[in-house]
Structure formats: structure tokens, C-alpha cells
Design brief:
single chain, 359 residues, mainly beta, Immunoglobulin-like, 3 domains, 7-stranded mixed β-sheet, 6-stranded antiparallel β-sheet
Length: 359
């Protein structure tokens, strides 16, 4: 039995030779198959990489680079109940190779204008086509704005085909509307035009307001709030009005921008006015409000008292900002007045409200 077992474990020499040949053939076939699969994967990856490179966002196929392109745009009012159907007439500006300064929250966009105030169509679905001066591979940016609509710069786009398109966002201005609410340190609401509670400041006194609030109360419109200035009499006894902090909504939620008093006024302000600006404008849609909690008034030795002894008036002027075509350079600028020789207001008119101060 043991001999039989041993014999069963012995491989005859002729069978061993055949087995070696078969094994070698199998190894060869496996190697050839592996090489074929490897080549196929490499080739596919090479082709896929080339395809991806040509079709990735912003990529320009070599066969199209430099060919004439068309940039089709429409402007839609984002303050409307249905912005998708609210297509409007607005001057359109398209800038090639734009430079944004600063990159975040820009206040100036420079470059070559390929559309310079072309009025967009208000017919739903009808585009305004820019066809001159742009080619495949160019970077472009569009913006639409005038005294009736606030503009928001579109994204910088690379034209990687011969046809590009963009919906430019605009907001209908509210014409200078807004509800003003001011409370003094004792939580009294100051009355406009001297009616009701006045601000009271005796000799050398100061008072910090509880808050100053502006509410955009006109439906289907917006107010691109930029700041305010306080107009006082040339002979005013108000020697200082100062404040700074975070601009908030009526629920004390910060807008992420700050405000501060500044000596830099507007062309339409006087040297004796007190100006406050936001670090960047805030777009207030219907019923949005913006609030300031740190405004301090200070009177001189006479207190708030006119020569007649009946106090004095002061006026709050609230102003907005908008994008405008610069008169000095090839650029669009964001500001409250344009940069012409005699600067004029842009956007909505100022919202002005008068108050009184007594000793």
C-alpha cells in the first residue's frame, strides 16, 4: 500500500515535460494579456485626458481659439416679484480682459469696453448680442446700470465657444423712499420736523442715540444703501457728531460691513456737514432695514440753542451707491456720485428728513 501511495505521488518524466510547456505558455499568455490591457488603459486615459482638457470649464479648444465670438446678454430686475420674467431696458457695459479692484467687493473694473452703454432689450427672450471685438478665449464681464436700476457685476467668463450668454442682475431703484426711525438714549422716538420729542443737549453735553434706522419700504424696488450725512447750520452749536461700528438689521444681525464718520464728504455736502459711510454698500430689498447704534451728538458751551433761544434744526440725508461709467478712465466705478468735472448723484435721490435739537 505504501508503495502504491509513493507511486501515486511520482510524476512520470514525460508528463512533467508537458506540464512545464503548458505552464510556460500560460505565463506568456498572461503577460501578453496584461500588456494589452495596460496599453488599452493608457491609450484611453491619454484620450480622456485630452478630452477633459479641451472641455473643462474655461478651457478653449485649440481649433476655436481666436475665432470671432458672440456674447448674448439680458438684464433682469431682481427686485421684481418674478425676476425671471422681469426683463428690462438698461444700458449694458461689457468689458474684455477685466481687472477688478479690489478683487473682493470691487469698486472699480477696468478693461477694454466692447459694449459701452448699449441698451438691452425688455422683450422677454430677446438678447442683446455683442459681436464686435471679442473672440474665443477672451475673458469678459458684463454689468448693466443707470439711474433707474442698480447694477451688479456679472462673473468674469472665459468664452470657450463662439457663443456665450449671461443674465445681468439689476435692481429697480426706489426713487429715494424710506422710513426713518430715531430713538434717543431714553427710548423716545424723535419727532420729525420738530414735532414731538426733540434731541435735547445742554451746555457741553453729549448724547448717544439708541439707534438710527432706515427701512426700504417700497415694494418691488431696492435701495443700495451707502451712508448718510447730517446737514447742520453754519452757525450750529453742534460741534461734533461721531460714531462707528457694525451696520445691522432691525434684529441686530450684522450685515458684515462697518460704518464710520469721515471727513470725506460728497460734492453736494457742505464743509460743516457730518458724513458717515459704509465700508461697502448694502442692497436693501423691500422691507429690509439697516441700523446704526453708535451715533453721538455733542454741543458746545451754548448747547442746542439758536440766537433766538428756540433751538436749531438739522437734516439727515441718506444716500445710495451705484455703478457708473467713468468719465476719467476706461472703467466702471461704484460710488455715490459720478466722476465728471461737476459730480452728480447716481442711483436714487437722497432721502432727507429734518429734526430739531433744543437746550
Amino acid at each position: 500500500m505504501k508503495n502504491q501511495i509513493r507511486q501515486s505521488l511520482i510524476i512520470p518524466s514525460n508528463r512533467l515535460g508537458n506540464t512545464k510547456i503548458i505552464a510556460a505558455s500560460v505565463v506568456t499568455m498572461v503577460l501578453l494579456l496584461a500588456a494589452f490591457i495596460g496599453y488599452t488603459v493608457w491609450s484611453d486615459q491619454k484620450q480622456q485626458t485630452a478630452f477633459d482638457k479641451a472641455n473643462e470649464p474655461g478651457a478653449v479648444p485649440d481649433t476655436l481659439t481666436g475665432k470671432a465670438a458672440t456674447y448674448s446678454i439680458v438684464a433682469k430686475n431682481q427686485a421684481a416679484d418674478n425676476p425671471q420674467t422681469s426683463q428690462v431696458n438698461v444700458p449694458v457695459y461689457v468689458i474684455k480682459a477685466p481687472t477688478l479692484t479690489p478683487v473682493d467687493n470691487p469698486t472699480e473694473i477696468t478693461g477694454a469696453f466692447v459694449a459701452d452703454g448699449t441698451v438691452s432689450s425688455a422683450t422677454l427672450g430677446t438678447t442683446t448680442d455683442v459681436t464686435t471685438g471679442i473672440n474665443v478665449g477672451d475673458k469678459v464681464l458684463g454689468i448693466a446700470a443707470n439711474g433707474t436700476y442698480y447694477g451688479i457685476p456679472g462673473p468674469v467668463e472665459t468664452l470657450n465657444t463662439q457663443s456665450g450668454d449671461e443674465v445681468l442682475k439689476v435692481y429697480a431703484t426706489n426713487g429715494g423712499d424710506g422710513l426713518i426711525s430715531i430713538k434717543d438714549k431714553d427710548d423716545n422716538t424723535l419727532g420729525q420736523l420738530g414735532i414731538g420729542t426733540n434731541l435735547t443737549l445742554g451746555s457741553g453735553q453729549s448724547e448717544k442715540l439708541k439707534y438710527l434706522r432706515f427701512e426700504q419700504n417700497k415694494t418691488n424696488t431696492a435701495y443700495y444703501f451707502a451712508g448718510f450725512f447730517i446737514d447742520v447750520n453754519v452757525t450750529s452749536n453742534l460741534t461734533s457728531i461721531k460714531g462707528s461700528g457694525n451696520a445691522q438689521d432691525s434684529d441686530a444681525v450684522s450685515y458684515g460691513v462697518t460704518y464710520s464718520d469721515t471727513t470725506t464728504g460728497l460734492e453736494r455736502t457742505q464743509r460743516d456737514d457730518f458724513t458717515f459711510r459704509l465700508s461697502y454698500p448694502v442692497m436693501l430689498i423691500e422691507f429690509d432695514s439697516i441700523q446704526f447704534n453708535d451715533i453721538t451728538f455733542t454741543a458746545d458751551g451754548d448747547g442746542c440753542n439758536s440766537a433766538a433761544g428756540d433751538g436749531e434744526d438739522f437734516v439727515f440725508h441718506f444716500f445710495d451707491a451705484n455703478w457708473f461709467r467713468s468719465a476719467k478712465s476706461e472703467s466702471m466705478r461704484l460710488g455715490s456720485e459720478d466722476d465728471t468735472v461737476t459730480p452728480t448723484d447716481v442711483g436714487s435721490a437722497d432721502r432727507s428728513v429734518s429734526y430739531s435739537c433744543t437746550a
